[in-house]
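Memo subject: From amino acid sequence to C-alpha cells
Keywords: amino acid chain, backbone geometry, C-alpha cells, three-dimensional fold.
Body of memo: The sequence and its C-alpha cells, given next.
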Amino acid sequence: MLNSEVNDYYRSYFGSYFADYLKNKEQQDKRLNLILFIFIIGIFLASIGLSKPIFAKSDPNIIKTANTGQEIYLYKNFKENIENKYAGSYISFPYQGIAHIKKVKYINSKPIKINIIELNTKVNPNLKIKPQIASDKLNSKKTVRKIAQKDQAIIAVNGGFFKPTTGVPLGALMIDGEVLSGPIYNRVAIAIFENDNNTSFKMSNVYFDITAYSKNHVLKIDNINQPRMLSSYTLMYTSIWGEYSPPPPKNGYNMLIRNGQVIKISANPIKIEKNDIIIQSSKEKISTIGKDREINVKIKLPDDLKEASHIIGAGPYLVKNSEIYVDYKEQKLQAISGKNPRSAVGYNSDGTFIIVTVDGREKTSVGMTLYELAKLMKNLGCEYAMNFDGGSSSALYVNGKIVNNAINLEGIAVSNALIVNEFNPNEMQISTAQTDNIALKAKGI
C-alpha cells in the first residue's frame, strides 16, 4: 500500500490513473500476469524467427537460396563464407562472385606465398570461364597480362604446357566447341560446360577419337595440331597450327584436303589456308585413302564430354573424388615434382571454382611440391583439382595487375591461359580464337 506522499508523487508525474493503479494490488496482479504472458509469447515468436533468418550464414561448402533477394542473399553468403574461411588473410572482392585471397603458409618453417581466387557463377551468372590462346595461331606466345587484355578478362592464369620454342600447346585444348589441339600421354584436362547460364565442370583423362574416312577406306588419326612424337603416328593439322604444315616423317606424305576434296599430296610442307586440313602419315596410308579423292574428318569426344564448351589439359591430377591423387608418373611429369612455383585449378560440387598460384624459388617463398600443392587444394575444399604449367610460367592476373611474384614481374610469354570474363548479355562478344572450320566442331558429334 502506498503512503500519501508517494501517492501524490506519482499522481503529479503520471496522472491519477497510474497512481490509483499502484494502490490496487488486485489490479496490479492482473496486469502483471498479462504483461508476463505477452512477454513469454514474444520470446517464443522471436525464437522461431531467429531459427530461420533471411540472411543465415551458410556452411562454406553450401550455397543456400532465399525466396526474396536471391542474388543479394547468395552474395552475402559467398562473402561471409570467404571471410570465415580465410580469417587472418588479406581478402578482396574485385567483382561480384569473385574473391582474391593472399596468404603465407609455412611448411617446415619455410614461407610460401599463395594467391587464391575463389569464384562462383551461381553468385554471378555473368562470369564466364574459358581457355584462350595467345594469338590466332597456335605457334605464338604472349604474357598472361596480354592474353587477358585481348579479351578484356578480369581474371587470368597461365594454362597448359607448351613447346617453348614455338608456343604450340602440348595437350588438349578446345575453345567454344572447336578442337584446337589434342591430348598427350593421356593427361588430365578440365572441361567447362555452359548450359543456360549454368556453368559446371568435369575433370578426367581426355582422349579425342579422330577419324578420316572415304567411300572405301578409314584412317585412324592419332592427334591434331601436335608435334610429332612417333614416326608411326598419323597426324592432322589445320590452319590454326600455322601458315605451313610440318614436314612429314621419313617415307611419309602430307595430304591437303579442302572442302572434302583431296587437293594435293606432297613429301614437303604444304601451305594451309583457312578451313584446310592436312593429314600426315606414311606413303602407304596416304596413297591408299587418297585414291578416293573425297575425304571427311570426324572428331568425337567421350560421351561425358560431348556437351562441353571448353577443354584445357595439363596435369597431373592433384585431387580426385575429394582425395589426394597425384599421378605424375603415369602422366610422364616426373621432371616437375620438386619444389617450384605452381599454378592449379579445382572445383567442388556447389559450383565454387578455385585458382591458385604459389610463388617459389626465392627466400621469401620456397614453392611447393606436387603433393604439397595437392594437400593445399584439398584443404581449400576442392573435390577435383589439377596442376597447370608452373615454374617461370606461373602468373595470376587480377583486375589489371599481375598479383603473384612472377618472374620479371610479368611472367614469361606463354601459349595459353584460362581467363574469366564478366559477360554482358546485352553485348555480343566474338572470340579471336573462333574460326569457321565446321568440320572440326566436336560439340554434339
In short: Residues 25-51 form the longest helix (27 residues). The longest strand covers residues 110-120.
